[in-house]
Amino acid sequence: xxxxxxxxxxxxxxxxxxxxxxxxxxxxxxxxxxxxxxxxxxxxxxxxxxxxxxxxxxxxxxxxxxxxxxxxxxxxxxxxxxxxxxxxxxxxxxxxxxxxxxxxxxxxxxxxxxxxxxxxxxxxxxxxxxxxxxxxxxxxxxxxxxxx
Length: 148
Description:
- By secondary structure, the chain is an alpha+beta fold.
- The protein has helices spanning 4-26, 34-39, 108-114; strands at 30-31, 45-48, 58-63, 69-74, 80-90, 95-105, 118-122, 128-131, 142-147.
- The longest helix has 23 residues, at 4-26.
């Protein structure tokens, strides 16, 4: 009995299955509107957890240009402390990769430390962190947020 046709059919099926799995994992869905954020249970308003100046930063995410979202971080007096463009794209399962793609305004040291940083969050997450270190605030160069 010749098993070659069965082996070829099994190999072809395996390749087709692997290809479809690869396509579904590699197909990146990026959220581009506040409505999409809400539908996917990703907050569009965040509050800084650990302040060095005792004035929390309030981060608001809104629609931007192209596939990017715009973010603006304001202090309680209404002054803009940081702003730019970010992307929030699906990762594995119900996780999202949140990346600071561009920083338009920020204190120079913050700009240099946070440019290009990203974080992975789950839908409904209560935590978002940009930068390095475990303890944001002093002395670690990072900003950590909770949904507002």
